[in-house]
Amino acid sequence: MKVRILGCGGSFGSPLAWGKNGNIDINDPKNHRTRSSILVKVNNKNILIDTSPDLRNQLYEAKCTNIDAVLYTHVHSDHTSGLPDMRAMSLINNKIIPAYMPNDMKSEMELCYKYIFKGEKDYLPFMKIIELNNSFNFHDTHIETFKHNHGSIDVQTYKIGKFAYSTDLKKFYNSDIEKLKNLDLWIVGLLRYDPHPSHAGFNQILDYIKYLKPKKTLFTHMTALLDQKELISKCPQNVEPAYDGLEIEL
Fold this sequence. Notes:
By secondary structure, the protein is of the alpha/beta class. It has helices spanning 55-61, 77-80, 86-93, 103-112, 114-117, 202-212, 228-234; strands at 2-7, 37-42, 45-49, 69-71, 97-101, 127-131, 135-138, 141-150, 153-160, 163-166, 185-189, 216-220, 239-241, 247-249.
C-alpha cells in the first residue's frame, strides 16, 4: 500500500493569501499546503479520500490519471468542491466512478452536483453514489469506517489494513477509538495548537496518540498557525506534520 498526501491544509490552505502568512516560514515549501485529500494505492487500485478544491493540480502533481473510487469523510466544501475535476478521470478511463459517502451527505451532494450523479441536459453522469457500510470490500481491499465528532456534524474515519485516516476530529464516540489500535500509520487532523469548537487541540491529539500507540502519526488539515519546523520540535518520536506530496509505503 502507498499513501500519498495530496494536500494537508485546512479550509483556507496555507498560507491564507499573499502576505497573509500566519505563523509559518514562507520560505519553507513544506508550509505551503493545499486543502486536505489523500490518494491510497492498494491492490492495483487508486482510492481517493475526499475531493478538495485543489484536486486537479494535486492529481497532476501525483501524475495520477485514474481514480477507481472516492471515499468521502463529510460534506464540508473544502473536502468536496473539487468533485467536478473527477470528470476528467471518468473521460480518460471511460468509466463511472463510485463515490462512497454517508447517507447524511447524499441529498446535498445530489442537489449541488446533479449533473455529476444523475446527468443533466447534455451532461451524462460520470459518478455513482454508493451506500456506505461500516465494513465493505472494494475489489480485493477491505475497508472499515465509523463516525467521529466534528463539532456540529460527524465525519467518517476510514481504516484500510493497518492504516487509518481521521481528519477534522474533535472527539471519538463510545469505544470507537479502540478500533484504531495497532496501526502502522495514522493520519489525523490538527487544525491548530489550541482547541477549536470543531477540532481537538494539540494536547488532546497527543493524548489519543499516546493511548493508541501507532507506529507513525502524521498531522493533516493544518492552518497557517502551524509552522512545519516548530511543530516538529514539539512532537514526540514518530509523530510529525505531513506535507503536500509526501508518500508513505506500508
